[in-house]
Amino acid sequence: MKVLVFGANGQIGKHLVSLIRKNDKLEAKAAIRKEEQADYFKDLGADVAIVNLEGEIEDMAKAAEDVDAVVFTAGSGPNTGKDKTIMVDLDGAVKTIEAAKQANVKRYIMISSFDTTREAIQSAPESFAPYVVAKHYADEWLRDTDLDYTIIHPGALTNEAGKNQVELAEQVERGEVPREDIAHVILESLLNDSTIKKEFQVVSGNSTIEDAIRSL
Q1: CATH of the domain at 201
Q2: Where is the NAD(P)-binding domain (predicted)?
């Protein structure tokens, strides 16, 4: 299975591409915004596509023509304004969904926010609410497709080394989780069809990622 990773140059994306390259069942294609980011992924042995999430759906669909799955790990980041949140976390996400459809790629995995319900929007701090809104509508768009989707809702992300110990279910208590473990969750979701048409929250816990995914 060849996997196109949007947001590959982000922290989760880099972990994911590295994990994919170590798995003999998967191949990686890194969707990145700048040519100068390419050498990192080529050195890993991954294919590269230069694609701007603020660009055209057709460019994203072209990047997806030779793949079997699409993963969206991109994010505008905490230091950008509401405009970038809309352009990347909402519009960019929706365009990659539409690109997958155009390229006839059925498998799609979305990295969302921990809670994207209407209640979460209303209770979010003012500075964070636009991000939750963007993720809410991107998730809704994906649910309304016939893609074989999985929506992953990670807890508060950290840069600690992955522990391969998580709690994973439709609803869990809020907590932290290393980005490396989320990349591992994506990998196991790609390898397990039981995650298709599922969405779940993930925080650090006491189960191995493999066991947690199999329990879905």
Answers
A1: 3.40.50.720
A2: 7-192
